[in-house]
Amino acid sequence: MDYKAIIFDLDGTLIDSMQLWRQVDQDFLLGRGIEVPADLFDHIPQGNSFIGTAQYFKERFGLPDSVESIMEEWTQMLRWHYENDVKLKPGAGKLLEALFQKNVPIGLGTSNSLELSSKALAQNGISHYFNSVVTGDFPLKGKPFPDIYLKVAQELNLEPSRCLVVEDTLTGVQAAKAAGMTVVAIHDEDSLPFAPQIREMADAYVFTHYELSELLKI
What we know:
Helix 1 (about 20-30) packs across helix 3. Helix content is about 45%, strand content about 10%. The protein is α/β, with parallel strands linked by helices. The protein has two domains: about 5-15 and about 85-215, 3-Layer(aba) Sandwich (Rossmann fold); about 20-85, DNA polymerase, domain 1 (Orthogonal Bundle). The chain is built from nine helices and six strands, in the order E-H-H-H-H-E-H-E-H-E-H-E-H-E-H. The protein has a six-stranded parallel sheet with strand order 3-2-1-4-5-6, sandwiched between helices. The N and C termini lie close together (about 10 Å).
C-alpha cells in the first residue's frame, strides 16, 4: 500500500475500550429511567463525535442537562479507566514504534475527547509517536463525516490521498473513505454486526495489529 502517513482511530482500534462505552451508555440512560434503545446509534445527524453524541443524547431523550454537563458526566465515568487500565490491543505498541523508527508521520483521529484520549496515550506510553491528534471535542462534524480525518491530514501537511487510515467501525471507515483516504479495517468484537459492510467498503481487513504490520511491510 502506498502511503506517506498513517492515521489511527483510538477506541476499538488502538485500545480495547468499546465495552466501557457500552456500559456508560447503559448507566447514563438507565440512571435517568430510560431504556437503551436498540437503534441508539443508527443515525446521529451531526456525526458521532464527543460533542455531537452529547448533543444527540440531549435532543433525542429530551434531557434537561447541558451538552457540557453530559460530556463531563461521561468523562467522570471513564476518567479512572483511561488513566489506569485501558490497554493497547496486542501488537499496537510494537507497530507504532516501528512506524516511528521509520519516520512515518502518525496521526490520531478519534471521536473521543482530548482529555480521555490524552490519558490513554500517556498511560500506555505512546503519546510521543503522534504528530497530530484530532479529537471529538474539536468544533468539527463527527464520523461518518470526513472532517476529523481531513483535519489530521491538514495538520500533517499532506493531501488526504496520501494518508492511510486504520479503523474498526463502519462510521469510521465511511469517514475515512469520504475524506479520500485508503482504509484498513481492523477487527473489533463491538463492530461484528457491521463486519460485512466494513469489509466491503474498506480497502483491506485485518484481525490483529500483527497482521496489519505484515500488510504494511513494517
